[in-house]
Amino acid sequence: MSYENSARIINDDIFDLINETFRQEKSSQNNEWRLNFFDTYNNYFVLTDDGSYSINSKEINHKVETLHTSTGAISESFEKFIKPMKFNYDKDIAILDICAGLGYNSSAAIADFMKNSKTNLKIDMVEISKATLACGLLVPSPIPEHDITKKAIENELIAQDYATLSLETTDIPENININVFIEDARQTVQRLDDDSYDAIFLDPFSQNMAPELFSVEFFREFRRVIRDDGIIATYTSSAPVRAGFIEADFYIGLGPIFGRMQGGTLASPNPEMLDWSLPKNDEIRIALSDVGIPFRDPSLNNSSEDILDARAEERHEARHNTKISSAVKTPIFLGQEMDDEKLKRRVERNLKKMNIPSTTSNEAYYIVEVESAYSEKQDLKNNSTNRILDMKKRLKKVKK
């Protein structure tokens, strides 16, 4: 199976139907194939609470999910990827949209830009699956600006001989430049210029499906191409993802909560661009537990399976050696009295393997002492990243 086929995440049935629709359009030169698609196959589309449509994923671990939250597909784009940004609309803006999918995140960015700015906007959309982008042409536009994105998608699909007819009638404004890259994002990002983006939208379906798009090495490419005051936004609250950002020399903070129980993640070279700390227990687990081992892809071309296997092995080697076991969330009990005797025995058994006699030992208090200064509001010195790095150093000293 090609990387493109393994990496794309839309439902197998709709994937085949979309490909067949555009094959028929090409052979017949008839616009009805595309124009009638949504009405014919609307049962494959999922109406979300804000009136915008999502589509189902392929079956993953015997489970099918929608690509967007049921709370609202286009609302999710605005809440998670636009609102956290601190764009200076007096200047030109450049955005990198990774896993562009149906084009909603870019469309939300265009809408915000057109409301606030008279300068220039550049968006580089990256999506490996032609069929997924083509689905963006077939779904009803949730906002008028999605028609602009559709035109850019259609232009590239025609250039790549996937689509044939130019059916999108909306013109792309002269001050908006949209480039569409249909390829492995790892290859795209290596060709991009240094210090060239104000924002990066990172929106793969899941870390377990695409760990290659959450690796330390991929994030180091982000660090190269993002501007000093730029912000990366992603929906995930995953510990290995957050740990990966820190290892790639980013500061991290809490992203908006929308359609999920937990907030996403924001990252920036500049800590002053990030307002909110991660939850305290998240910081502790990232710093001290083997769950905070990031994904690695040294050559930026490894398979998902190899990356997941390598991380599992690294976690195994680190557990009880350089990291506290993640079992029963052991590190979060450091510095705390425990009433549950059975749980306490399990926790302290794990701690003793790291030279920490108990949850209330001097060693335990020393490691998490930095958390006594915790505040939800971050600043230049007191922030999640500095606390995580401090706890990692303290654990290393104790283990010696």
Give me a quick take on this structure.
With 400 residues, the chain is an alpha/beta fold. 40% of the residues lie in helices and 12% in strands. It has a 7-stranded mixed sheet with strand order 5-4-3-6-7-9-8, with helices on both faces.
Model description:
- The chain has 400 residues and is of the alpha/beta class.
- 40% of the residues lie in helices and 12% in strands.
- It has 16 helices and nine strands.
- The strands form two sheets. A seven-stranded mixed beta sheet has the order 5-4-3-6-7-9-8, with helices on both faces.
- Helix 6 links the parallel strand 3 (93-98) and strand 4.
- The protein is elongated and about 75 Å long.
- It starts with a helix and ends with a helix.
- The mean pLDDT is 94.
Task: Kindly state the percentage of residues in helix.
Answer: 40-55%
Uncertain stretches? none
As a whole number of angstroms, the C-alpha radius of gyration is 23 Å
Q: State the secondary-structure class.
A: alpha/beta
Give the overall silhouette: elongated
Distance from N terminus to C terminus (CA atoms, Å) equals: 47 Å
